[in-house]
Every structure is written in structure tokens, then in C-alpha cells.
Design brief:
Largest sheet: 4 strands, mixed
Strand order of the largest sheet: 1-4-5-8
CATH class of the largest domain: Mainly Alpha
Order of helices and strands: HHHHHHEEEEEEEEHHEEHHHHH
CATH architecture of the largest domain: Up-down Bundle
Shape: globular
CATH superfamily of the largest domain: Butyryl-CoA Dehydrogenase, subunit A, domain 3
Number of domains: 3
Structural class: alpha+beta
Strand content: 5-15%
């Protein structure tokens, strides 16, 4: 893997910089802050018009054809400006499994709509009472002619309140091992019998939901892959999710923000950034971040060559989420008691740290990072079995 910038890469970086500087305007940034997740649709459509919304898709389906270095450049420039990444459920997760396991009809219908952000997706994996044991799911799908009838519930479903479609794991057979008899199916969220119950997180945001299925009728043609073989599809999707969770570019941005704030903060009469203990903590994070970054680049290179992310996605997920939490904790400590400031009360002239509220909210939401996408304890078991060969 060679990430040295060629003349073409330098020209590409300049193109990316110019695009972000002209298209991600202050008005667009304000719109995203005001609308939250729904504002991302407008930004994703701008990316689509440029042809840059799906860097990891194959060219034949609308991907960019970028090298691993170009993807790295794009992500770096995006994070420098604090531009949110795309909503992953459609563009990163379900699109990849439709490409790998879907029928021609499914590819022709769903992929263009995902690419254009015409459909919003959510993920129906976790269930009430199942914890991290995904294979213990109980949502049942029974065949009825050309349809399946689904009953059960999913939980921690991000953005279900906005979603047009949900990709679900359902149980179609109870006769074998719990990993068998699971089927991957696509469900229209407008179907009769679906109820979305909001869950307000510890950060006081409404991103999460419980989704109930009460005799929901879904066409059998919406099954992706083989009936009863959904566990294979699920693992492929989770590999893409875990790779994306690493969040290297955004961790690097958080470190830059920490350094900028620490240069202004005083501690015992000196700048916090000059404190030896604080420098050591930053250095520890940056060393591990560098190792994580090159592991991610190797994974990107494999995917660019047509491969699928494997057990290394678990390595990315573990270390990425641990570093996310480490930077969030450091920022919280810097904010000190100003972390209790509410957004409506923030006035740097009076209250000091204008980032206090953001630091608290990021810290609270970030507590879940080592759990969602498969808890880090489960990821360690995957590494032990498939990387180290332990039983």
C-alpha cells in the first residue's frame, strides 16, 4: 500500500478542497444543525450530483472508482471542516449486501434510489431482551402465499422515525441452531401494522426508537439472499458497519479541537497544552490513532480491490470506539463544570467554554459506541477465533 501523494492525488485534493469550500456553505452548515439527520438528505443529494456520495461502491453501480489514497484524502478534508459523514444505513450497509446477495430486480430498484437519497433506511437487528446476542432474535416471519407475515419488535433503531425502509433479521425457522433459520428481509416502513415508539437518549436527543411489527405483510421477493441463510448476510453487513464505526477522520478532528482549546486554557498558571501530563495523554491517543489509521487504509485497499472487510473490521471497531471515548473524556475534563451549560445558555463572554454542552452530549452518546455494531467483548471473541485461531 502506497499513500504517497502523486501529482494526480495533489490535484484531486485541490478539487476536493474547492468542492467543500464552495458547496458546504455556512447556510448548509446551519441547515444541518437546525434539521439534524434530515438535513443530511440535502447534503447527500449535492454529493450525488457531484458523483461523490458512494466512494466505496463499484463503478458500475455509481461508485467513484477512487484509490485508497483518494478515499483517505476525501475523508481527511471532510473531517477538517467538520462535515458529517453520510447516513450509513442505506449507502454503506444495506446497499453492499444488496449488491452481494440481492436479485437483479432488487439491485435495479433499490440501488439507484439509495444512491440518490430517495429512500431513507434504518436497521432492524437488536431486539428487546436480546442484548448483544443477535442470534437469539425472536421476531417471527411466517410464509403466507407470496408474502411473509412478521410479528415482533426491534429496538435501538436509529432514525426509524424518518425511515422509508427497514432491513430486518427475522426468524423463519426454529428447528436448528439459533444461527440457522434467520432470514434477511426488506420492509416498507409504510406497511400496515408497523408502530414506531420514540426512545429519548441520555443526551436528550431523539435518534433511537423501538419498532413494533403486528401482522406486517411483506412480499417474499423482498428476501435478500436465501431463506434461512440470513446470518451469512448479517455478518457481511456488520463487517461494513464496524469498519465505518472506526471514525478515524473524525477522531483526528476531535484531537485538533482539543489542542486548540488546550492552547487557550490555563492550568496552574500555564497553558494546559504545555502540561506534561496532558501532553502524555494526547500522545498516547495519537500513537494509537496512527496505528488505527493505517489499519483502516489497508482495509480500504482490500475493498478497493474488490474484497470484503473481514475480521479486521472487528479490530477497527474496538480500537476506533475506544479512541472516540478517550477523546470525548479528554474534552469533557477540559470543559470541567462548564459541561453543564445548556445550548440556550451558552455565552463565552460569561460562561467561558462554549464547547461545554457539545462535549457533554458527545460524551453521553459516546458511551454506547463500544456496544452498538456488536459489543467490543463480542469483537474480541471474533478476533480470538478468526484471527488468532483460538477456540
Amino acid at each position: 500500500m502506497d499513500i504517497a501523494l502523486s501529482a494526480d492525488d495533489v490535484a484531486f485534493r485541490e478539487e476536493v478542497q474547492n468542492f467543500f469550500d464552495t458547496q458546504f456553505t455556512p447556510e448548509m452548515e446551519a441547515n444541518l444543525r437546525a434539521k439534524g439527520a434530515t438535513g443530511m438528505i440535502e447534503w447527500q443529494k449535492i454529493l450525488h450530483e457531484k458523483g461523490w456520495v458512494a466512494p466505496n461502491w463499484p463503478v458500475e453501480h455509481g461508485g467513484t472508482g477512487w484509490s485508497a489514497t483518494q478515499k483517505y484524502i476525501f475523508e481527511t478534508e471532510r473531517s477538517l471542516r467538520g462535515i458529517p459523514d453520510v447516513v450509513p444505513f442505506g449507502l454503506v450497509m444495506v446497499a453492499n449486501v444488496i449488491m452481494a446477495f440481492g436479485t437483479d430486480e432488487q439491485k435495479e430498484y433499490f440501488l439507484p434510489r439509495i444512491l440518490k437519497s430517495e429512500d431513507w433506511w434504518c436497521q432492524g437487528y437488536s431486539e428487546p431482551g436480546s442484548g448483544s446476542d443477535l442470534a437469539s432474535l425472536k421476531t417471527k416471519a411466517e410464509r403466507d402465499g407470496d408474502d411473509y407475515i412478521i410479528n415482533g419488535a426491534k429496538i435501538w433503531t436509529t432514525y426509524a422515525q424518518y425511515a422509508d425502509w427497514i432491513f430486518c433479521l427475522v426468524r423463519t425457522d426454529n428447528s436448528g441452531k439459533k444461527q440457522e433459520g434467520i432470514t434477511f428481509i426488506l420492509v416498507d416502513m409504510k406497511s400496515e401494522g408497523i408502530k414506531v415508539n420514540p426512545i429519548i437518549g441520555i443526551d436528550n436527543e431523539h435518534n433511537l426508537n423501538e419498532v413494533e411489527f403486528n401482522n406486517v405483510r411483506v412480499p417474499a421477493k423482498n428476501v435478500v439472499g436465501e431463506v434461512g441463510k440470513g446470518w451469512t448476510v448479517a455478518k457481511a453487513l456488520l463487517a461494513h458497519e464496524r469498519t465505518g464505526i472506526a471514525g478515524v477522520a473524525d477522531i483526528k478532528r476531535n484531537m485538533r479541537m482539543i489542542k486548540e482549546a488546550a492552547a487557550k486554557e490555563t492550568n496552574g498558571g500555564q497553558r494546559l497544552i504545555d502540561d506534561a501530563g496532558f501532553q502524555q495523554r494526547m500522545a498516547d491517543i495519537e500513537v494509537e490513532l496512527m496505528a488505527l489509521e493505517f489499519t483502516e487504509l489497508r482495509t480500504l485497499a482490500t475493498m478497493a480491490a474488490g474484497g470484503f472487510p473481514g475480521p479486521e473490521s472487528s479490530l477497527l471497531k474496538i480500537k476506533g470506539t475506544e479512541l472516540q471515548q478517550a477523546t470525548q473524556e479528554l474534552r469533557m475534563e477540559m470543559a470541567a463544570y462548564y459541561q453543564g451549560v445548556l445550548p440556550t445558555d451558552m455565552d463565552p463572554e460569561v460562561l467561558g467554554h462554549s464547547f461545554g454542552s457539545d462535549a457533554r452530549r458527545a460524551f453521553m452518546y459516546g458511551r454506547a459506541a463500544t456496544i452498538y455494531g456488536g459489543s467490543n467483548e463480542v469483537q474480541k471473541n471474533i478476533i480470538a477465533k478468526y484471527v488468532l485461531g483460538l477456540e
